[in-house]
Amino acid sequence: MARPHEDTRPSHKQIAAELRALILSGDMAPASKVPSVRDLITKYGVVNQTIQRALKLLKDEQLLVGKAGAGVFVSGTTQQVIDPASYMPPSPEGAPYSWITESAKRKRQASTALLDVTENEPPAQVAEVFGLGKDSTAVLRCHLTLLDGEPAELVHSYYPADIAHGTALVHRRPIKGGAAALLAEMGNPPKNAVDRVSVRVPTPEEVRLLELPEDVPVLRTFRIVTTDTGLPIEVSVMVKAGHLYELQYRVFHQP
Questions:
Q1: Sheet order of strands, 192-200 included
Q2: One matching Pfam family, short form (predicted)?
Q3: CA 35, 29, 57, 198 torsion: positive or negative?
Q4: Are 242 and 219 in contact (CB under 8 A)?
Q5: Is residue 2's pLDDT more than 70?
Q6: Strands 80-82 and 245-247: what pairing?
Q7: Total tally of structural domains belonging to the chain
Q8: 217-235, pLDDT tens digit by residue?
């Protein structure tokens, strides 16, 4: 008979994992008080230091907050729900990038910081989408999005060189209204998108730029944007903290 797989993580990480699951499921509601350290010691059969280490992990992840003399509470907000479809349509002429306007609807102040614009050989996944051969290049625009001044998402957006050349896509400055609006002006309006979502361990760059705490996985969205004729005009790799965001998709039945 096969031996059951054992969780070999340290006790404080196992306890943090159980509490995290309760928080993210809503069973420990925002602003609710966490059981006392004494109660947690009794429940899990561990020493005080183990409970304190577990609670620190969740405080570092912004899921718990300590209040002097009152105890430890679930943060007022836990995961932010992101609806990718709301960011797809190009911004109206003269309007800010949709990330900013959509965030404002949730009473969050959003901004973007352009980190780099380069032209080089793209990753294999991107090259496959664009149908590029070896040594072919694509234009990369890398930026960091922020919510209320805190890093939210690291985005690497790739564009076919023949579409990007001679346009603002190759300039190292923000594009008014965002790339989607520019592509529409160029005669390549984004119409459809396919997302591939995965979870993985963050790279050192992602830990640094997203200011991630210890052992937090990231949500990775690989998005292919096409015109109404199916022409791929943009591929974006979007990475965000897995414990702070969840993605919401709508699925429609087609008879």
A1: 110-120, 138-147, 150-160, 232-241, 218-226, 192-200
A2: GntR
A3: positive
A4: yes
A5: no
A6: parallel
A7: 2
A8: 999 999 999 999 999 999 9
